[in-house]
Automatic annotation (TrEMBL), chain A:
<dbReference type="InterPro" id="IPR027417">
    <property type="entry name" value="P-loop_NTPase"/>
</dbReference>
<dbReference type="Pfam" id="PF00005">
    <property type="entry name" value="ABC_tran"/>
</dbReference>
<dbReference type="GO" id="GO:0016887">
    <property type="term" value="F:ATP hydrolysis activity"/>
</dbReference>
<dbReference type="InterPro" id="IPR003439">
    <property type="entry name" value="ABC_transporter-like_ATP-bd"/>
</dbReference>
<dbReference type="GO" id="GO:0042941">
    <property type="term" value="P:D-alanine transmembrane transport"/>
</dbReference>
<dbReference type="GO" id="GO:0005524">
    <property type="term" value="F:ATP binding"/>
</dbReference>
<dbReference type="InterPro" id="IPR051120">
    <property type="entry name" value="ABC_AA/LPS_Transport"/>
</dbReference>
<keyword id="KW-0067">ATP-binding</keyword>
<dbReference type="GO" id="GO:0005886">
    <property type="term" value="C:plasma membrane"/>
</dbReference>
<dbReference type="GO" id="GO:1903806">
    <property type="term" value="P:L-isoleucine import across plasma membrane"/>
</dbReference>
<dbReference type="GO" id="GO:0005304">
    <property type="term" value="F:L-valine transmembrane transporter activity"/>
</dbReference>
<dbReference type="GO" id="GO:0015192">
    <property type="term" value="F:L-phenylalanine transmembrane transporter activity"/>
</dbReference>
<keyword id="KW-0813">Transport</keyword>
<dbReference type="GO" id="GO:0015188">
    <property type="term" value="F:L-isoleucine transmembrane transporter activity"/>
</dbReference>
<feature type="domain" description="ABC transporter">
    <location>
        <begin position="5"/>
        <end position="246"/>
    </location>
</feature>
<comment type="function">
    <text>Involved in beta-(1--&gt;2)glucan export. Transmembrane domains (TMD) form a pore in the inner membrane and the ATP-binding domain (NBD) is responsible for energy generation.</text>
</comment>
<keyword id="KW-0547">Nucleotide-binding</keyword>
Length: 248, 329
């Protein structure tokens, strides 16, 4: 399969800490890839570099052959990579529908200084996206009144608005109760399916990883420790020792 | 859908307020003209404040508009009030177009202090400029309207009142449309989380720059009104206390209602005039107590007297707040 994202010898240091050590990785179209690793292993740094928040010290990041390593987050998003955040980054004083309206209004041509933000077409689009996540009845609720799990889903919904080629989710089930984690992830996978061709998610929960990922990439001290099918990676001795701590 | 006055109703209101000037006593006409002029510049501050940035230096654009109009009026004999407002707005806007993109990358206190610093640099330049009259400034002639000159003071005051109310009223209507627009919503988003705005593919800097430009245009037009009312201009237009007064009006009004800006501006002018009349030595004290009272009892501004919290208003029409799936504990 053709890689949608191709990373070559990516390096990033914060002082003496090596967050990315000559990372090389191809992400083919259509896969669901999970990035695993202990805290500080370099997963979020990788996501931040791919999405333009951090600039790599060296190496290349190619999206469909275009070098995006030095581009701004806005430019990267416009080229087709969207992301959600470990801590949802929402507009807390606005309602769920308004959050999505802001996202929708940024697509395509210039944003209108006259067209009402609550025009029916825009609102329908926002509510339709919320409906995919089973949240349509919360459309008019301010984010400040919503629970953490719901905020996570709205954060993901906002990332989906642009129908990205590659969607990166940073710990989509963190903060969600053990009973609800599969329901939440089912919703995410179901909602993402029509739009995002390729999905990369950072995850600590190995049950989620083994159930939803096609491929697992294990990080350790800024390097890729193992890369392959979930069963293969999760049974890898080094991964069990440094990443999962024997948990399966 | 959010309810609000239809623009046609707003136009009718502006017309009614303009015609009401016919029955107002002469002394209130000039007071209302100053209030409308101050409301216009304060409206610009409110527009900008919706992005989370407050300008403490709107005196810069106020003075740019005033000086621009005064120079053109004296050099080319431009006396038409409407043309002067357009020239003032253009002068403020041109300056805003240059400064906006440079300053938009800063936020919070840095943004505020930079605007203040720029206005004080301009003030310093004006004071030192002998060609512009230095600290004394210079005078301009009486304004006309569409070729008509007004020798009767009452008629001249009414003409200025009418033009200022109409221009400020239409600026208010434009601001209302802007607040309800996609762009208005994105401006609120910038105030809350500009990183997320960038991750949605929008430019937070561009949104701030456009709001800054609008505020500068309003300030330039306001400077033209102040010039027409006083028929004199001096560097005080750019001084920090002048800018501070406009921020006062914006704080009094809050950012929930465009109408509140006009009410706040009129209230401030009335309190200032009456306290100056009856307590000439302590009028600043009265003004300070008035400001403290508003901030204490109406922390969200005068607009909160008639605008309920936007979400409470909407939710009350939809579902109960408690015991609902997804609601935070």
């Amino acid at each position: 399969m053709t890689p949608v994202l191709s990373v070559r010898r990516l390096e990033k240091r914060f002082g003496a800490v090596v967050a990315a050590d000559a990372l090389t990785l191809d992400i083919p179209t259509g896969q669901k890839i999970s990035l695993i690793g202990a805290n500080g292993a370099g997963k979020t740094t990788f996501v931040n570099m791919v999405t333009g928040y951090l600039k790599p010290d060296s190496g290349t990041i190619l999206l469909d052959g275009i070098d995006i390593g030095r581009r701004s987050p806005r430019s990267v998003v416009r080229l087709g990579i969207s992301r959600s955040f470990q801590i949802p980054q929402l507009f807390v004083e606005l309602t769920a529908a308004e959050n999505l309206t802001v996202a929708i209004s940024g697509i395509g041509t210039r944003m209108s200084l006259r067209a009402p933000a609550e025009a029916q077409g825009r609102r329908d689009e926002a509510v339709e996206l919320l409906e995919r996540f089973g949240l349509a009845d919360l459309a008019d609720r301010p984010i400040s009144e919503l629970a953490g799990g719901v905020r996570k889903l709205i954060d993901i919904a906002m990332a989906l608005v642009r129908r990205p080629k590659l969607l990166l989710l940073d710990e989509p089930t963190s903060g969600v109760s053990a009973e609800e984690k599969f329901t939440t992830m089912d919703r995410v996978i179901h909602a993402v399916a029509p739009d995002a061709a390729t999905l990369v998610f950072v995850e600590h929960d190995m049950e989620i990883v083994s159930r939803y990922a096609d491929r697992v990439v294990a990080f350790y001290q800024g390097r890729i420790l193992a890369d392959g099918a979930p069963a293969e990676v999760l049974n890898n001795q080094e991964v069990r020792r440094y990443v999962t701590g024997g948990v399966r | 859908m959010r309810k609000g006055l239809h623009p046609l109703v707003m136009i009718a209101l502006v017309t009614a307020v303009t015609l009401f000037g016919r029955v107002l006593p002469t002394w209130t006409l000039s007071l209302a003209t100053i209030a409308a002029s101050n409301a216009l510049i304060a409206l610009g501050i409110v527009v900008l404040a919706r992005t989370g940035n407050v300008s403490f230096g709107q005196g810069l654009f106020f003075a740019a508009g005033g000086y621009g109009v005064a120079l053109i009026a004296n050099a080319w004999g431009l006396t038409d009030a409407v043309a002067q407002v357009i020239v003032g707005a253009a002068c403020g806007g041109l300056l805003g177009l240059v400064i906006g993109p440079l300053i938009a990358r800063y936020s919070g206190i840095f943004f505020g202090m930079l605007t203040l610093a720029l206005s004080m640099v301009f003030y310093g330049a004006l004071v030192k400029s002998t060609a512009l009259g230095g600290s004394d400034g210079f005078n301009v002639g009486r304004p006309s309207l569409f070729g008509m000159s007004f020798t009767d003071p009452r008629e001249a005051d009414f003409m200025l009142y009418a033009v200022s109310v109409i221009v400020t009223g239409f600026a208010g209507i434009a601001a209302t449309i802007l607040f309800r627009s996609e762009f208005g919503l994105a401006s609120l988003a910038v105030r809350e989380n500009n990183l997320r705005v960038e991750y949605l593919g929008l430019s937070a800097n561009r949104i701030i720059s456009i709001n800054f430009l609008i505020a500068a245009i309003f300030a330039g037009a306001s400077g033209a009104f102040a010039l027409m009312a006083q028929r004199h201009i001096d560097p005080q237009f750019a001084y920090w206390t002048t800018s501070g007064e406009f921020v006062f009006v914006a704080v009094l009004a809050g950012n929930q209602s465009v109408a509140a800006v006009f009410v706040a501006s009129m209230a401030l002018e009335l309190v200032r005039s009456f306290s100056n009349l009856y307590l000439p030595n302590t009028w600043q004290l009265v003004l300070g107590v008035f400001l403290l009272g508003v901030i204490l009892f109406l922390p969200r501004g005068i607009g909160s007297l008639w605008i309920r919290d936007r979400h409470k208003r909407r939710i009350s029409a939809t579902v109960p707040l408690t015991a609902e799936r997804g609601a935070a504990p």
